Automatic annotation (TrEMBL):
Keywords: Transferase. InterPro entries: KR_dom, NAD(P)-bd_dom_sf, PKS_KR, PKS_NRPS_Biosynth_Enz. The keyword Transferase applies. The lineage of its organism: Bacteria, Pseudomonadati, Pseudomonadota, Alphaproteobacteria, Hyphomonadales. One of its GO terms (molecular function) is fatty acid synthase activity. It comes from Hyphomonas johnsonii MHS-2. Residues 190-416 form the Ketoreductase domain. Pfam families: KR (PF08659). GO terms for biological process: fatty acid biosynthetic process. Transmembrane segments: none annotated. Gene3D superfamilies: NAD(P)-binding Rossmann-like Domain. This is Omega-3 polyunsaturated fatty acid synthase PfaA.
Length: 466
């Protein structure tokens, strides 16, 4: 007799664009006030300014917002620029425009890898007295874009995709998904490349994949596989290890700086965790190798991946869990912080995909974040980068119909990047943490067995607070 399927411990829901919503025709000046349009993409800016002018609204094209306009349309997302450049420019320009009572509209194309909805959703929380939205435009012709923007202005539209027919589609979270009743027949063991997968929650998910699929797992991470220092008892506590290393140095007559002791302790703990993951993968039925690879060093990726595939064969599964945080309010955030966050999560992934033959890929699992879907105070860059993953996943799924592509908008895990301070922050909002075993089960279930058209997935509670 078949055993009943055990429900997930966390809510799992698909994220899709909803049914089309017809936008109204322009009926005259609808209280836009003074309008400024940045000229980062000159054709779009000119077309929108001309269309507004033809309808009696004076709109100025500007290099940067003046800070006094009531409505500011930012074209930085339409410009031909690298993701980190475009997103930093959009954020920097918004800071000039974000005054109480004003309205800011980001524009981005649907065909590019852009995550400005993550920015607008975050700014809605950080700047509650400012109206902020992102319009994702399917049209590429400047005149068609201008017509769609005027209709969206007439509708006071929030975040939306505007398709070629001029209709709006809003992002919607669907009903809860249940665990699959039965797994698909296992495919031949593949070669998985897992970025950020040697430690933390990504490693937990990789072990569950190995248990179900077997195959070979290449764990790529920035940390070196450092050996455990001789003569030091094993520990997982940084403070304990630093003290032991300091005592060892004193006993041997060495003069070691505290910064060097801290660096050695962190490297040893990282190496210990990596080795534990390799052992867990082997115990789960996989073959595991560790590859030191810094995804933010995009120039080094092509030769590194070529060497990996020359040794192991074509990569057939990709799990992208690499990422870093640089939390700070949008008004204080620096360009270096935005680039730090975009480096491994977006730039590295794009460079990685550029080196792979995507025709060999059977599975792609991307670790996004609920911050992309709801915004999160202090995480403008992280929300943007993760929304880039969501958009890229939709594009990959459309272009690779035989490949399982999933982007997981994870809520906070019990572990990983969530320290005690973040855990308390989420608890105040009534957001439960995702258990390690439950999260790994959800990841493997959905990546391996959910329908192809379920691409973007929210895991965990919906966020409402700041």
């Amino acid at each position: 007799m078949a055993q009943p399927v055990v429900a997930y411990g966390s809510d799992v829901r698909p994220v899709r664009f909803g049914a089309p919503v017809a936008l109204p025709s322009w009926t005259g000046n609808i209280g836009l006030g003074q309008v400024e349009i940045t000229d980062a993409e000159p054709q779009a800016a000119h077309a929108v300014a001309s269309a507004l002018g033809a309808n009696g609204v004076i709109a100025k094209q500007v290099a940067a917002p003046s800070g006094v306009a009531s409505t500011v349309i930012l074209t930085e997302g339409l410009a031909a620029a690298a993701p980190a450049d475009a997103h930093w420019s959009a954020l920097a320009q918004a800071r000039h425009a974000g005054t109480p009572g004003s309205r800011i509209i980001f524009l981005q194309p649907s065909h590019a890898v852009s995550g400005l909805p993550g920015l607008s959703r975050t700014l809605q929380k950080e700047w509650p007295e400012t109206s902020v939205a992102t319009w994702t435009l399917s049209a590429t012709d400047a005149q068609a874009r201008a017509a769609h923007i005027l209709s969206a202005l007439a509708a006071s539209l929030g975040d939306a995709l505007i398709t070629l027919d001029g209709q709006a589609h809003l992002t919607q979270v669907g009903p809860s998904l249940t665990p699959p009743a039965a797994a698909r027949a296992p495919a031949a063991p593949g070669l998985w490349l897992v970025t950020g997968g040697a430690r933390g929650v990504t490693a937990t998910c990789a072990v569950e994949l190995a248990r179900r699929t077997g195959g070979t797992f290449l764990l790529a991470g920035r940390s070196a596989l450092s050996p455990w220092p001789q003569g030091i008892p094993p520990t997982t506590e940084l403070k304990t290890l630093r003290a032991a290393l300091a005592q060892q140095a004193v006993a041997s007559g060495q003069k070691v700086k505290p910064a060097d002791i801290d660096r050695a302790a962190r490297a040893a703990l990282a190496g210990q965790e990596i080795q534990a993951t390799l052992t867990a993968l082997a115990s789960a039925g996989g073959t595991a190798h560790y590859v030191q690879l810094d995804l933010s060093d995009t120039a080094a990726l092509a030769p590194a991946i070529a060497a990996i595939q020359a040794r192991h064969g074509a990569i057939t599964g990709l799990v992208h869990g690499a990422g870093v945080l640089a939390d700070r309010l949008a008004m204080e955030k620096t360009e270096a912080e935005v680039r730090k966050v975009f480096g491994p999560k977006v730039d590295g992934l794009l460079a990685l995909l550029g080196t792979l033959d995507t025709g060999h890929l059977t599975h792609v699992g991307l670790f996004s974040s609920a911050s992309a879907l709801f915004g999160n105070t202090g995480q403008a860059d992280y929300a943007m980068a993760n929304e880039c993953l969501n958009q890229l996943a939709r594009q990959l799924a459309a272009n690779l119909p035989a490949t399982q592509v999933k982007s997981f908008n994870w809520g906070p895990w019990d572990g990983g990047m969530v320290d005690a301070g973040l855990a308390a922050h989420f608890a105040q909002q009534g957001i439960a943490l995702i258990g390690q075993a439950d999260g790994a089960r959800i990841f493997a279930d959905q990546l391996l067995d959910s329908p192809h058209d379920v691409v973007e997935i929210l895991v965990g509670d919906e966020w409402s607070g700041g």
